[in-house]
Structure formats: structure tokens, C-alpha cells
Design goal:
Elements (H helix, E strand, L loop, with lengths): L5 H27 L1 H23 L10 H37 L3 H13 L5 H18 L1 E2 L6 E2 L4 H25 L4 H23 L2 H8 L5 H25 L2 H8 L2 H11 L7 H19 L1
Antiparallel strand pairs: 1-2
Amino acid sequence: MIQSHLGEIYALITAVFWTITAVCFELAGKKIGSLSVNYIRLVIAFVFISLFTTFSRGMFLPVDATIDTWIWLSISGLIGFVVGDLFLFQAYLEIGSRISMLIMALVPPVTALLGFITMKEMISLSGFLGMLVTIIGIFVVVLVKNPENNNFKFSKSIKGLTYAFIGALGQSFGLIFSKIGMGDYDPFAATQIRILSGIIGFTIVFFFWKKWDKLKEAIKTKDVIKYLLIGSLFGPFLGVSFNLLAIQNTTTGISSTITSIVPVLIIPLSIFILKEKVSPKEMIGAIISVIGVSILFII
């Protein structure tokens, strides 16, 4: 049973990791800005994963990867880390991590569609049902009701929502390119390639935007180091690696659906760390999302 659902288990672990990293990077971004957070977290994550692969594979760098693997995973890193996460982290600052994660709920259907178009991945009727129920639960958690006309609406800025939407597209395309390029290659080494391309991409961004002074100031801000270290450990290192493990063992659509329950998992952290209040509606949404994930596991 467990063996047959390894992909789903890895995806659920990924969701937990990304919940932690979303809160950490929101807290860090409020102090030093999203651009600096993105760059620093990738450098820290590269150190983490390089040390890990040195012991696990006997290689500090993924020198055994083929040229095709390097090309596809580098493209994935540029799209996912540089484009996708740059806009997502800015959305954290504009509309908060919870609403941003709602928009990320668009990742599963977009990824499933791209997976069908590019790799002919098929999703069963139960898979579609599980995805639909999970997404409904997420929408229940993070949408608010308009008292004027009793319709649901977003209570945040259009600019922030647009940033989050671009972030969702970046993650969807990044997942597809990752699966194409990775094949049976080691997921941690694959993540290392993606992170390396992300670092190069952000270096170019800093060069053209001339933001090096901001980066120097960010490095000197000591009270955010703990958030960057924790976020880097559970985000671009463990989170991304387990996400690649997930898409190796299940379809990209189902994997991204399970990881999209982050807005539900983030509720306890929102209460105790971000000091937010949780309504009964949000608890109902959490239950619906858990049911959706259960469908993916059981049926």
C-alpha cells in the first residue's frame, strides 16, 4: 500500500516542508525584501545540498548528469526559481503567504494539462475527483465573502494576485521541465542543478538591476538569518528534492495537487507565529482538503 503511493507520500512531505518555508520567507522578506531572500536562500540551499550529495553520492557537484539533463533541469531552475519564485515571494509581501498559496492552487490543473500535452500523462477519474475536492477545500480556506452581494472575492491587491499567478505558472512549467529532464536521475542531484541555474539567473538579475547594495545590507541583517536558514533547509533543499521524488513516482498533476494543500497546513503556523485568527470556515476548508488528499491515496 505504502509502496504503491510513494509519490503521494513524498508530495505530502513536500507540502509540510513548503508550509514551513513559506512562513519563514514571508518573515524574512518583510525585513530584507523578496529579491535578497531569493538569492540568499538559494546560496544556502546549494551549500546544504552539496554537502548532502558529497556524502550520499560521493560527488560535490552532479558531474555524472548528461548534457540533456543539465539543459532541461537548468531551464526548469530558471523558470521555477528565478521567474516563478521571484514573483511568488513578491506576492508574499503584497498579499501574504496564505492568499499567495491560494493562487498556487492553480498549479495542479495547469500542471496536469501540461503533463498531458507534453508527456501524455493520464489522470484517472478518481484522480480528477481528488484534485477537485482538494482545490475546493483550499478555496474555502482562503476566499472571503463580500457582504454587499454575498459573493466570494479576493480581499487583496490585483498586483499581488497577478504576482502569485505568475509564480504558479512558473512552478507548473518548472515541474514539467524537471520531469522531462530528470528521468531516473537522482532527485537531490537534479535539485542541485536547478539551484545552481537559479543562482546564476539571480546573479544576472542583480547585475542588471544593480541591487548589490541591497544584498550587502540584507546579509548584515542578523535577525533574519534564522528564518533564511530554516526556510532554505525546508524549501529549495528538502522541499524541492522531495517534490522531484514525488513526480518520479506519480503524475505531476496529482503531485502538485497534494502539495497545494499548503494554505491549509499553514493555518497552525499562522495562529502561533503570524498571530492570525482562524475562522470556522477555514477549519471546514481544511477538512475538505484532507478528504481530497485522502481520495488520491485510497482510490
